[in-house]
Design goal:
The protein is built from 5 helices and 7 strands. With about 180 residues, it is an alpha/beta fold. It has a 7-stranded mixed β-sheet with strand order 6-5-4-1-2-3-7, with helices on both faces. The protein is globular. This is DUF6879 domain-containing protein. Pfam families: DUF6879.
């Protein structure tokens, strides 16, 4: 793994055509959203203001990419019935869509015959894969990110994403169970 992995923001700012994100965990426990998740568990309320302090950095980053002509797609493979965390994500996916992302959901039973990578990932312009490494309880692992540009790895991951995308249900019609 390269020692100097660019930040996610740097990678997103450099992308020119496409950025795709594959999420396959049913639970995340990353520190930057733990307070928001716990508040949602307590109240059932999510911040849905794209201009809020919580959301604006993400919305601005994605909106700038989309304005440059970048197609941003996110696919989530989920178990059903979904976990509280997936309900939490689903409740705010409108923000991803508002920023310009296309989002789809794939129930895990519909993915059993797909060959999927062992980690969540982003693919930038079909040339780089940024693997997101998590611990068993959903916290960032050490190291949390691994950037790979080997054409074989990029192709495998791209093929996996496209297979998920083809089967997945668009956010606008996916109902959580």
């Amino acid at each position: 793994m390269p020692q100097n992995v660019p930040s996610f923001d740097e990678l997103m700012e450099a992308v020119q055509h496409s950025a795709v994100h594959l999420e396959m965990r049913d639970q995340y426990a990353v520190g930057d959203e733990a307070d928001d998740f716990n508040a949602w568990l307590d109240t059932g309320h999510r911040d849905l203001d794209p201009a809020s302090e919580y959301w604006s950095p993400w919305v601005d980053l994605i909106s700038r990419a989309v304005a440059r002509g970048v197609v941003v797609r996110r696919a989530r493979v989920v178990s059903e019935p979904v976990t509280d965390y997936i309900r939490y994500e689903h409740a705010a996916t409108v923000i991803n869509v508002t920023a310009g992302e296309q989002v789809r959901w794939l129930p895990r039973p519909r993915a059993v015959d797909l060959m999927l990578p062992g980690a969540d990932l982003w693919i930038f312009d079909g040339t780089q894969v940024l693997f997101n490494h998590f611990t068993g309880v959903g916290e960032w692992a050490d190291p949390p990110l691994e950037l790979r540009s080997d054409p074989g790895i990029v192709k495998q991951c791209s093929d996996a994403f496209e297979a998920v995308w083809e089967r997945a249900v668009p956010h606008e019609i996916y109902e959580i169970h």
